[in-house]
UniProtKB/TrEMBL annotation, chain A:
PANTHER family per record: ATP-BINDING CASSETTE SUB-FAMILY B MEMBER 10, MITOCHONDRIAL (PTHR43394:SF1), ATP-DEPENDENT PERMEASE MDL1, MITOCHONDRIAL (PTHR43394)
Bilayer-spanning residue ranges: 20-40, 55-81, 127-151, 157-174, 246-266, 278-300
Organism placement in taxonomy: Bacteria, Bacillati, Actinomycetota, Actinomycetes, Micromonosporales
Annotated Gene Ontology cellular component terms: plasma membrane
InterPro entries attached to this UniProt entry: AAA+_ATPase, ABC1_TM_dom, ABC1_TM_sf, ABC_transporter-like_ATP-bd, P-loop_NTPase, Type_1_exporter
Protein name as annotated: ATP-binding cassette subfamily B protein
TrEMBL record, chain B:
Ranges for domain ABC transporter: 349-581
Protein name: ATP-binding cassette subfamily B protein
Source species: Pseudosporangium ferrugineum
Pfam families reported in the protein's UniProt record: ABC_membrane, ABC_tran
Membrane topology annotation: Multi-pass membrane protein
Amino acid sequence: MTRHRELFRRYVRPQWPRLIVLTVLLFGNIAIELIAPLWVSRFIDGVQSGATNRALITIAILFMVFTAARPIVMGIAGYLSEDVGWRSTNRLRTDLVRHCLNLDLSFHRKHTPGELMERVDGDVSELAEFLSFFVFGVVGRALLSIGIIVMAFLVDYRIGLTLVVAAAAVLIILRTTQRLAVPKSQALRAAKADMSSFLEERLGGRETIRANGGRAHLFEEMDGRIGVLVRRTRAAMVASRYSSSLLELMVALSAVAVLALGAYLLPSGSISLGEIYLGYYYTDLLSFSLIVVTMHMEGLQRASAAIRRIGELTAIQPTVVSGPGHEPDRGSLDIEFENVDFGYGGTQRALDGVSFRLAAGQTLGLLGRTGSGKTTIARLICREQDPTGGAVRIGGADIRDYTLPQLRGLVTMVTQDVQLFHATLRDNLTLFDDSVPDERLLAALDQLHLRKWYESLPDGLDAVLVDGGGSLSAGEAQLVALTRAFLDDPDVVVLDEASSRLDPATERLVETATGRLLEGRTGVVVAHRLHTVRALDHIAVLDQGRIQEIGEQTKLSADPTSRFATLLAGGTS
Amino acid sequence: MSHLKATFALIRRAPGWFALSAVLQIMRSVFPLVPALVVSIAFDRLAEGSGLNEGMWVLFAVLIGAVLGRVGSLFGSVAVDGWTDSTTGGLLIRNTVARVFRRPGAEALPHSTGSTVNRLTTDSQTVADMMVSTMVVVGSTAQALFALGVMASVDVVLTVLVVVPVFAAGLLITFTSKQIKRHYARSREAAGEVSSMLREVFRAVQAIKLADGVDRVTDRVRELSETRRARTLKSRLFSQVMLGAVFNSTSGLGAGLVMLLAVSRLRDGTLTVGGIVLFVSYLVWITEFTTLFSQSLAEYKQAAVSMTRLDEVVDDGAGLAALVAAPTSRSAVAAVSRDTSPVGPLTQLSARQLTYRHPGSDRGIEGVDLDVRRGELVVVTGGVGAGKTTLLRVLIGALDRDAGTIEWNGVEVDRPSEVLIPPRCAYTPQVPYLMTGSVRDNITAGVDVTEADIERAAYLSVLDADLATMPDGLATRVGPRGTTLSGGQAQRVAAAQMLVRNPDLLVFDDISSALDVNTERELWHRLRADGTRTCLAVSHREIALAQADRVVVLRDGKVVASGRYEDIRDSVPELSHADPTDLVDNLVSGQ
């Protein structure tokens, strides 16, 4: 419950002016709903008692005004409700995106984008929908139901009692049957989410699926999922009608009760025909209101589940958090690993007691087999993860002492897996930073010798890049990533297999640019090919999370017993 | 094909079910009218002064019976609608996916993956919901006609007054339909932008974090969300708030009018109290019908937008007819892939004058000739943007060539995407794309193979040593898009997927990019060990170039040199590496 209150306080309460207008409309609507049938009742009694035409016409006109006014009130209120719903959940969505982005990368390696979408968009939209109808659907109808019972008692206490009994029965029925329906609708939602991630993955991999003859298999898998959807939709739709069906039966029974009561009392004159009508009408209205309330109670349950899941997500805290802050001595930052361990838990450690020091402005190439720990070292320098033992220092300070923005300002990493946005080249280079002037972007492209390539793009910086390949080759995507790094102007550069996937011509291009990027900066390069490390000052050879050998490149290559020299000679290390 | 015709075509996909749905809808809609009729008779009896007599109890029994009938037909109707709804949605998804997979595999779709998935799921649901609500309208129309009939039997003039708002509403809807459609389309578009932005953000978490871009990206999400809010509300304002309000007010006024006119009729006895009760109750149903009708018209218009959006997922020009086509059976899909009739086992694959231009740019390949004979290794190399990947894609039909011919054993292949697939040919792309699931799932990817086949493929792709270190071996989960594997492992799993299919021709697009020297050497060693495999590979590594029977060098989309590496290396700048450390590669490959 505290979670609900917290959400309400942060996201809904700021909408208070709209909420006030909504409340006024809400009470207006309740009044109209309660009073309108009174006019019909008076009309009937007027006819029975022989009232004047004039009196009857006045009643008819009043009824007309009330019934005509209600949809307008409802229309405005519906619009406002939805506005409140969207506004508050938009803020929630933005906060959640920020929260997710601040979580550790290890978290993101475990959760698919589809899964997070389901939280950030699916669950939040569930909340938006609920909030949009909450005021009128739940609060309004609940108040109306109380109003109806009060009015019924004013008409006749026996009718009032009948309605109380009916309302109690209705609530019991609803509470029991709802439990049957909820699991079915949850199962349906799960099937839809599964379908969505299935489609996303298969669309992404369509080149391979087609080329390797996977279409038949794709259809087999898809048909299986459609079959599940069909079964679950039917089950959910049938289950969703349990309560309303029982209710209809209940309404019929209450109507019979009111009419029987009326028929019994009418000859004694203790009740009028109009009052019987009113009792009958209120029975109907009460059941309808309670249906609406329960319908949205189901929404409330779904919203609660959504809030719980959102809560679970917000409860996850990043382990990589900002330090207290440390002003670095920019321009001369060394990197030091002191007895650093890193283990994914259980099995073999990814890094085991790694120590080295790389002086400021020097460069280090990391060599080793897949899984030897090269990438882990790169990730630790960028604080994608924190070591499980030992310390990583940059500029003499433990990198956990820097705030994250400070560290991000110092260290830039170019990853192998380039992630492009379906956005303009400008946005892809600056990551949506509008304050970077075009001249700076063009200058960076010049430095990379990318001006010619850039000029071949039809719309220049406004060229929209398409995700999933298409407009850019993998090599070109790499060039975009390198330009991103250039723009950051960091002190420490980490290149993770940055030159892979490039042909010799581009590699030369990148090497020139990388050389310029590394000039006067401290650099760590994860490499798979030997020639990429030849321009670097130092070499470390890793195996199974340990440094097997580290030293100046010239010395290592001159020493025929070194592993590096063996590698150069083409032998296995 | 018009949207209306497409809707009818969807009904024709399962005419029996839709007919049953209509019958049940009519039953479930007409039954609820009975209680009001019974109550009106009861009121007339009460007005005449009768008490709680036997006749009253009979009326009550009829009332309860009608409700039981209603509930029974409701359950039947809902079950049938659940079927039609999900089956229609499924058909739309299936047909659209089928169209996507008929297009060349490497051709970019007109919209981002996020937006495409959004269209496939949300828009197909909108269309399916429209189909169901059309059936609801059928029932509701029967209900309105029944109600009007009963009312007309009481008083024709009063009844006509009730019908007027319905016509007025119909006119209003027609008048505003364009706005509804436009606003809805704009709101859907904004929703698609939010989804695709979020999807991309969650894919690019690493890049965003490392570039300290969290705030900027979050701001962008907020802007897009606000646009969605504004547009959704605008669409809602038109379709529901304004129309809904005008509508219900009109019918409310109609109800009041009935009471006004009833005054004189009650005096002369042509209308009774029971009649008024009946009119007021039935008016609620008529109002509901008009609301429903207007909503379903709006829904139909929205569904039309959704149909167009689904159609636009693929720009093959096939139109709505393809969207609502009868589903191709799975065996038919499979038959296409198994069709081996045009060609036999590979002796020679030849391409002549292959030409392809990337849309909207002047890049691609032009007039490329290529030959691969049984048992050969042919390596394609060249600078960035030289067209290496494009050449492979055009050859296997992942891109539609603009010109040129492809021959398999001298027989012309018109649609390589249907022919150059297993068992003739298989492919490993430059960037491997794995699916959530186990390593085994990713290797087999649906083909029926033995454990020995998988082991052989894992051995050939040098995956065996990695499998031994993975906690669950072949059953190890690869994570979303294979992210728990290293780049090299993912690429070798993709290679194993190709190899387990045991095709005549292996096509690699730069398998070496994520592999270290030793692993790559081992890979080529294993693949070439028995000399029977035919390979076409893009590479720029000496290790591959030196073993090749032929090296084809591309520059700006054209072949500038072709021949054995040692014969052409000195005359082609692409092959003379500037960096002396490439000696390493020489040493490695020279062993």
